Amino acid sequence: MQNESVVFFKTLLSKNAISDLMLETLENFSSIKGIIQGLQNFSKEYRINYLDVLISQFYISGNFSEENIEQLKERLQNDEIVKFYISRCLDIADRSNSPRAKAMLAIYSGRVINNTKLLESPESAVMLDILGNVNDFDLNHFEMIYKYMNHHNDCKVNVHEKAYDIISFASQNQSESKNIYIETVSDNDKLSFVSSVKKLINNMALEQVTGTYESLQYFLIEKSPYSEKVMELCQEYKVLFNKEL
User: Fold this and answer.
1) How would you write the chain as a 3-class SS string?
2) What is the mean pLDDT of each run of 10 residues along the chain (245 residues)?
3) Are 76 and 86 in contact (CB under 8 A)?
4) The dihedral formed by the CA atoms of 164, 166, 169 and 172, expressed in degrees to the nearest 10
5) Strand order of the sheet with strand 220-223?
């Protein structure tokens, strides 16, 4: 067992920690090989490269004609504002712990590069703030709120009163599509939900109408001017990565 541990830690410290070659060397250690194989599968599924998604966006949107490619090269080489913007995006993507936010940032970046007038709008800066600071849980909760508001025609929602309803509404829709029974919403679910709401407000994905974080009784929220854009990116991400809508 000690020899297995040595091999395991040497493998983790190597540059090819999840390579196929390394897996072959661990054939005699089935338990460790299983762990590394799991890490490899996880990496393939969840590791999202910002530039890969950005390039795929140009391809999907039909911007790979010879003329468009030359225009794109010209912008990336000579437009200092675009270069600075992409530099910021790459920095945010490197620091992000949210594969989903990173992919959505790349999707939005494709729009900016194709329409540099967006850089003159506050929207481009706000979207960087939102996608650079939220995680997958925050984005899930954002979708819950957005869909709940649309379904119930509610412009404003009281977080204190409606948290359980919003989470339950999302769970019911998900369970109906998968035929899975969802149990009652826990206090931890509500705590995570409220934490995400605070972050979404701080980054302008949602707006706080009235009330304070400390006293949620009159804590009303509504969509911000950027909510629709965030939801649009959420939907594009799901289409691009074959996620359920």
Assistant:
1) CHHHHHHHHHHHHCCCCCCHHHHHHCCCCHHHHHHHHHHHHHHHHHCCCHHHHHHHHHHHCCCCCHHHHHHHHHHHHHCHHHHHHHHHHHHHHHHCCCHHHHHHHHHHHHHHHHCHHHHHCHHHHHHHHHHHHCCHHHHHHHHHHHHHHHHHCCCEEEHHHHHHHHHHHHHHHHHHHHCCCCCCCCHHHHHHHHHHHHHHHHCCCEEEEECCCCCHHHCEEEECCCHHHHHHHHHHHHHHCCCCC
2) 43 43 49 50 54 67 61 71 84 88 89 84 93 95 95 89 87 57 68 91 92 63 96 91 69
3) yes
4) -60
5) 156-158, 220-223, 206-210
Task: Enter the tokens of residue 198.
Answer: 């605070």
Tokens in use for 22? 């390394």
In tens, the pLDDT along 138-175 reads 999 999 999 999 999 999 998 888 888 998 888 876 65
Residue pair 177/245 in contact by the 8 Å Cβ criterion: no
Give the Cα separation of 156 and 207 in Å (integer): 10
| Antiparallel, parallel or unpaired: β 206-210 and 220-223 | antiparallel
User: Would you tell me how many other CB atoms lie within 10 Å of the CB of residue 152?
Assistant: 13
* Positive or negative torsion for Cα 90, 94, 97, 100: positive
